[in-house]
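Lecture notes, part 5. Sequence design as translation. It can be helpful to think of inverse folding as translation between two languages: the language of shapes and the language of residues. The source text, in structure tokens, appears below.
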């Protein structure tokens, strides 16, 4: 849950995002939260993204973290996330079977 001061409180199974202690210090000025069935993604006011939870469900965004700048919005499937960037492109991560790999259509995902 996003609190009035922009911080986040999490609960539930620790392996599926219920424990955000590893990223808690980065969860400030949170504007949006999205969840897969095992992970969370927080959009911060500066347009960056913080993820945690089950890596196979999008909790590990390290492979795309350098692209997650100027994010306007995040959407989720059961096991993947997609971020819409300010310039209109899309960045996806998480389980490829659930949309976490957009490499096949990346050139079509312009001016979204």
């Amino acid at each position: 849950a996003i609190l009035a001061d922009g911080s986040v409180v999490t609960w539930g199974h620790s392996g599926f995002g219920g424990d955000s202690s590893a990223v808690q210090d980065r969860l400030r000025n949170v504007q949006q939260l999205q969840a897969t069935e095992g992970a969370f993604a927080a959009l911060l006011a500066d347009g960056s993204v913080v993820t945690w939870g089950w890596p196979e469900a999008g909790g590990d965004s390290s492979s795309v973290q350098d692209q997650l700048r100027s994010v306007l919005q995040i959407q989720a499937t059961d096991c993947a996330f997609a971020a819409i960037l300010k310039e209109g492109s899309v960045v996806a991560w998480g389980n490829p079977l659930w949309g976490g790999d957009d490499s096949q259509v990346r050139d079509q995902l312009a001016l979204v």
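The translated text above is only one of many valid answers, since several sequences can fold into similar shapes. Residues 74 and 94 are 13 Å apart (CA to CA).
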